[in-house]
Specification:
- By secondary structure, the protein is mainly beta.
- Helix content is 1%, strand content 34%.
- The protein is globular.
């Protein structure tokens, strides 16, 4: 979870992309200090005290603002729509865009109430001008927002959601898009990460999978939900970063001051009996010492996104965005995929100035990001032409 202000990734040698640099002068840092992945028994607790709790931790909560109400101003400089990219790959699978090079932030609409702790972001597959998001904690709703205007288009509720393990509290932290299971009629699903564990005390965490609806269909109660209950090998972990690969494997990246741990578990292609969750133990894949790379961000990853087509990873911190390019290089040679974040350089991207960034997402147009807080602006870092 967050520290609230008073006011407002088999590591393989990576063939580096040619020409990293360019506009916005990204800071690339190679030579990440890597800790060898150990057996589960070596999965020792992370150093330091857990992150502080936020106002939603004390109980299931106080009332949130109504879904309608306060007027707000339209986006400044948003234009008539979202620009489309001119490039990306050269047809051979090689990624031709330099890693970490994105345009300056462009203002769009403001996220309306009841979105006041945005902590996950996915661009709609139906309408690329619509963003799916949710609040941090136990609000347990998804919201569809028109990015250019900030209009709330739909609210999804989950009346039949399985509760957390006894004594645990739900803590939704990130949102991802990925494939649906066998026999599904939808081509794309949304994965909701109830993965936060601020005190590192939860016995299990959960990932929910739902068919992605059309935002234009409006608000709805979602009853068809697949649940994957996950446990960590060894010590419990706090995570706010969830991505899903093309085969439906769920990847979590821990939030820690000292060591970032990358875990994975496959989401079963065939769901269990109705009303019953699937269970899995996460596999520890990699450990990374982030100090030399992230400096004052100190490894506090608050969100992530994975571009399946281009094999690029976004890592969000409260103040910055980091991009790690893990796909085919300029020659088309295969990249290492997600575990390669251990050896690959991390490129710093400077987003718009925000109170507390906890949501980031790739789109064909660029990188969207959004902060916690009421009436926060949605920003787009456009893909270079």
């Amino acid at each position: 979870m967050r520290r609230r202000r008073v006011t407002g990734p088999w590591a393989a040698a990576l063939l580096l992309l040619a020409g990293c640099g360019g506009s916005r002068a990204p800071a690339a840092t190679a030579g990440v200090d890597v800790a060898q992945v150990a057996d589960a028994g070596d999965d020792a607790p992370a150093g330091g005290a857990p992150d502080g709790a936020h106002r939603g931790d004390a109980g299931d909560g106080g009332a949130r603002p109504a879904d309608t109400g306060a007027p707000h101003d339209a986006a400044a400089d948003a234009g008539d729509g979202v620009a489309q990219p001119d490039g990306g790959t050269d047809g051979t699978g090689a990624d031709t865009q330099p890693c970490g090079v994105w345009g300056a932030p462009v203002k769009h609409g403001k996220a309306p109430p009841p979105i006041d702790e945005a902590s996950g972001l996915v661009v709609s597959a139906v309408d690329p001008g619509v963003l799916w998001t949710h609040n941090d904690g136990s609000d347990a709703r998804l919201y569809a927002v028109q990015a250019t205007t900030g209009k709330l288009l739909a609210t999804l509720t989950f009346p039949g959601l399985l509760p957390p393990s006894q004594g645990d509290k739900a803590d939704w932290e990130d949102l991802a898009a990925g494939p649906c299971g066998a026999g599904a009629t939808s081509q794309r699903c949304l994965y909701i990460g109830d993965i936060g564990d601020n005190g590192e005390a939860r016995e299990t965490v959960r990932v929910f999978r739902i068919a992605e609806p059309d935002p234009a269909a409006g608000s709805a109660a979602v009853t068809q939900v697949e649940t994957l209950v996950l446990s960590y090998p060894g010590s419990k972990r706090n995570s706010e970063a969830l991505v899903v690969d093309a085969s439906g494997v769920v990847w979590l990246l821990s939030k820690s001051k000292t060591t970032l741990r990358l875990y994975r578990a496959p989401f079963p292609p065939t769901p269990p009996a109705a009303g019953k969750p699937a269970t899995a133990t996460l596999e520890l894949v990699a450990k990374v010492k982030p100090e030399a790379v992230m400096k004052d961000d100190a490894g506090r990853i608050t969100a992530a996104d994975w571009d399946v087509a281009r094999q690029r990873l976004l890592l969000r911190t409260n103040a910055d965005i980091w991009e790690v390019c893990l796909g085919p290089d300029a020659t088309g040679a295969p990249g290492p995929g997600l575990p390669g974040l251990v050896d690959a350089p991390w490129h710093k991207i400077t987003p718009a100035d925000e109170p507390q960034g906890e949501a980031v997402a790739y789109s064909d147009a660029g990188i969207w990001h959004l902060s916690e807080g009421a009436w926060q602006r949605m920003f787009l870092l456009p893909r270079p032409k």
